[in-house]
User: What shape does this take?
Amino acid sequence: MNYQTERMKQLHRAAMEIVETVGMKFHHPKAVEILKSNGIRCEGDVAYFTEEQLMYWVRKAPFCFTLYGGDEKYNCTFGGDEVNPAPPYGAPYITEKDGKRRPATTEDYVNFVKLFEANDNYKTNGGPIVAIDGVEPRLGALAMWYATYTHSKKVMMIHTGDHEVMDALIKASEVAWGGKEALKEKPRMFTIVDVNSPMQFGKHMAETLIALAEAGQAFTVANCSMAGSTSPVTLAGTVALIIAENLPVIALAQMVRPGTPVLIGSQSCTADMASGQIAGGSPEGALCYKYAANLSDFYGLPSRGGGAISDSKIVDPQSGYESMITLMACYENHMNMIIHAAGILDGYNAISYEKVLMDFEVLNYIKRYVREFDINEETLDLEDIKEVGHMGEYLTSEHTFEWCRKEPMIPEVTSRGVVADPVNQFQNRLDSYKERLLKKYQKPEMDAEKLGEIKNIFEAAGLSRQWMDMVDEL
Assistant: This one.
């Protein structure tokens, strides 16, 4: 029997024992009601699943699905070997070049949307890349949706919200994309529905799940267990808990609407045993992402996890090597959705423009590595090898001219060869890269009538029309 398959079976058996004996605590009465109505044994707000019950519902989730962008070239497939990097999610602060930290602004949010829009490696955009100022936190999901809708044509990541906020967001989405049935037929949005380790699912998350499932939109279940803190210190126990926390939430979504597009995922890692703090850029985190991707094959579900994660406080060597190992783990294991695929610092507390741009380069390196190379008559170039023999060169050959922009990755930030200012070269190239991306960015054209209707919906929900008008001008 395949070694990895046997390991997955061991983890599955452990997870089934957890859901049957420990159970999952659901903090929303409607979620408990839905579970009970489908025959799940509940004691108070704790639901206990048999393996047969749980897998019956999990198998109703699609093994592959598509999310649609405002421009069809950005449509994303989730499942199989497809890999889709996505922006960071949830950082409240921005770290400046000098290492100082400041709150993010609305202009920062829009700037980041523009940078991700201009980078062809990303087909998704938006969500809580950073917090938005000048907006009541409860209405953040509406503000982020609006800023992304008016500045991006890519598949939209969104933030979570309570019932009233999600209702307004769905109504605006129906206006934007052709009505209720059209939105279900071509889902446009996804978000993260977090699990609280150990074995809890919150009221706020349940309201988001129910709203998105009823509207036919997608989400990824994700826990962020910290091995040794909120999950067992051993990774086997942590991965078993990942499974036990994911599957009941996926089952709930299928009870709301069978066929709801959902990804199985994890942002789990280890805890630093000296401080108890998260160690997101650790090799143990990379292993958790690897196994989250393996769960995709085992359960027949698309996968989500990882990203370019670092706990460094600034852009420095630590932020580089941690981001490389965590992002590489996702790509090598065909993680279908990689949230946090650029920008994260300090255990998800901050992002920086420099880190986003550096991770864009890291992503280019990794994509080139996993692409491998073709072996055929043309790429072997035996004619040139024979002609050059022992004393010639290849720099001026026709074959080099033909392949020099196709075979090697052309770096955007990396310095090679002689440079005039090696101390400041990296920052100078980052600044130049940022300018090129912002210059490349093109703002989408908006339908004035639709935009006016969307503004009315959001204003009625509490979002300032003046703020929306200001965003239009950015």
